Amino acid sequence: MDQTSRAWLILAQAELRVAELHGLLSRFGDVETIVAQKARDLVDAGLSDDKSSAILSPDDEELSRSLRWLENDAHHLVTFGHDSYPELLTQIPGRPLLLYVNGSIDALHLPSIAIVGSRNPTRGGLRNSLEFARYLARQGFSIVSGLAEGIDTAAHRGALDAGGGTVAFLGHGIDRVYPTANRDLAHAIVKSGALVSEYPLDARPLPWRFPERNRLISGLCLGTLVIEAARRSGSLITARLAAEQGREVFALPGSIHNPLARGCHELIRQGAKLVETAGDIINELAPLTGHMRQKAEGPVLAKAPPDDNDNDYDELRAILSHDPMSIDEMEIQSGLTIDQLSSMLLILELHGEVESLSGGRYILSN
Q1: What's the CATH code of the domain at 315?
Q2: Which of 69, 289, 309, 351 is 20 to 30 Å from 38 at the Cα level?
Q3: Residue 295 lies in a domain
Q4: Are 161 and 134 in contact (CB under 8 A)?
Q5: Residue 67 and residue 199 in one domain
Q6: Strand positions, DSSP E, the chain
Q7: SS3 230
Q8: Are 179 and 152 contained in the same domain?
C-alpha cells in the first residue's frame, strides 16, 4: 500500500491532471508503473518535460512526511478512480487527482448540502445558519462548508449539535487548522465527519487557495445554500460554481437595508431558489433524495427538536394565534427573553408551525 500511496503522491507533486492520468494509465497500466518510467517514455506518452522531470525527481522529504501522516488510522488518501472517491466530484471540471481526508471517508458519500456565507454575519445570519444546518442534518444530509469564521462555523456546529455528519474543505494543507480559533471545532468534525484538502501537507492558507477549493464544496453537494453574502464575496463564487456544475443554488433573502443580504438578492435575481424554510430545500431536492422525503414528512417535523425545552414551546404555542403578534408582546406574556423567543420562533418556523410577517410579527401557520 505504501508503494501505491507513494506513487500517487509523486503524481500529485507533479501536479498531474486527471486527463493526463488517463493517458498514462492507458499506456502503462497503473500508477506504480508510471512513476518507474524514464523521462523519455513519459514525454512520448504526452507528458510535458516539466512534469516528467517532477515525477523522476520528487521531493523525498515531502513524501516521507505524507507517508508518516497516513500511518494514522483516521488519515486517508482518496485517489481518483478508487471506490472511495466521491461520485459527484468525478463530474466536475478540475476534479482533483487525490484528496487528503482526516476522519470518515463515508462522510464524503452521504447526500450533502453546502451552507456558505459571510465571515462577519449578523446575529440573525448566524442563527439561521445554525438552525438550517441542524434541521437538514436531522433529515440525513451531511452539511458541507469551509471551516471559515461566521456562517461556515455555525453550519458545522449546527450539524454537530444535531448529531449529524459534516465535511470541511480546507484551503491549505490538512495538517493545519485555519483559522486557529476553530481548532476545537476541527477536532469535533473529525469525530463525526471529515476534514478534506487537495493541497499537500504544510501548504499555507494562501488567498487564492480558498476560492479554488470552493469548487469542491459545491461539487460534493446536491445544492448550495447561501446565507448572508455581500455582492463581492467568496460565497457568490461558490454559488456560481454550483450553478456551472449543474447543482441547485438556494439563497436566503434578508432586509433591503442589510448589505449582507445584497449578494443573496442578486443570486435570486439570477435564478437561485428563494428559501424561507429548510423544508423548501428538501422539497426542491426531493427528486434526488426520495428516500429522505419520506423521513422528512415523518414525526421529526411534528415537534421541536428533542434537546429543547418542551414546556417553553408549549407555552409559546399557547400564546400564538392566527392574529399577528410582535415578539415584544410575546416577551411580556411568556416571561422568556427576546433571544430565547427568536431562537424558538425560528425553529417553529423551520418546522412549518409559525409564519413570520413584516414588522417582526408572527402568526400560527395552521
Answers
A1: 1.10.10.10
A2: 69
A3: yes
A4: yes
A5: no
A6: 75-79, 98-103, 112-117, 142-145, 166-169, 194-197, 223-227, 248-251, 273-274, 325-326, 354-357, 361-364
A7: coil
A8: yes
Q: Which three cell numbers stand for residue 221?
A: 453537494
Element (H, E) at 221: none
**Would you give the DSSP letter of residue 4?**
H
Euclidean distance between CA atoms 1 and 144, whole angstroms: 29
- Residue 54 belongs to domain spanning: 1-71
Residue that is written with C-alpha cell 392566527 in the block: 322
Both 63 and 46 in one domain: the answer is: yes
Q: In the β-sheet with 112-117, what is the strand arrangement from edge to edge?
A: 75-79, 98-103, 194-197, 166-169, 142-145, 112-117, 223-227, 248-251, 273-274
The whole-angstrom separation of Cα 249 and Cα 247 is 7
Distance CA 79, CA 96 (A): 9
Q: How many domains, in total, are found in the chain?
A: 3
User: Which residue shows C-alpha cell 431536492?
Assistant: 285
Q: Which residues of 30-44 are buried (b: 16+ CB within 10 A; e: fewer)?
A: ebeebbebeeeebee
Task: Give yes or no for a contact between 157 and 185, defined as CB atoms under 8 angstroms apart.
Answer: yes
* 1-27 pLDDT, tens digit each: 589 999 999 999 999 999 999 999 999
Give the model confidence (pLDDT) of 80-111 as tens digits. 999 999 999 999 999 999 999 999 999 999 99
pTM of the complete model = 0.79
